[in-house]
Design goal:
By secondary structure, the chain is of the alpha+beta class. The chain is built from 1 helix and 7 strands. It has one helix spanning 2-20, and strands at 27-36, 39-44, 49-53, 59-62, 65-67, 77-82, 89-94. It has a 7-stranded mixed sheet, with no helix packed on it.
């Protein structure tokens, strides 16, 4: 019985890891720290720093409407949909916070 429980626990651990690190796209949520060239750095809701690549194909949305990269400002809350490799931002939903820099 213990072996079965241990096997189930390991299976759950590895399955969760597979979804979190490749194979499936997922999201990062947090606060914008820096936007530089083609890189976006955020502090995640888990208080971790994460950097993703922004491309010409990255889509931006604010208040449910399309916007452009200029809406990404330090302090803004974001939800970032990542590609399957977890490196490239496919879509960035921009929430409140931050101040628009001129």
């Amino acid at each position: 019985m213990r072996r079965i429980f241990a096997l189930l626990a390991l299976t759950a651990l590895f399955t969760t890891g597979a979804f979190a690190h490749g194979g499936k796209s997922h999201k990062l949520m947090g606060t914008v720290q820096h936007v530089h060239d083609n890189q976006l750095t955020i502090t995640t809701t888990a208080n971790q720093e994460a950097t993703v690549t922004l491309t010409d194909e990255t889509k931006y949305e604010k208040e449910g409407k399309p916007t452009d990269r200029s809406a990404l400002v330090q302090g803004a809350r974001v939800s970032v949909q990542l590609d399957e490799g977890d490196k490239i931002a496919v879509k960035v939903r921009i929430g409140g916070g931050g101040e628009h820099q001129h």
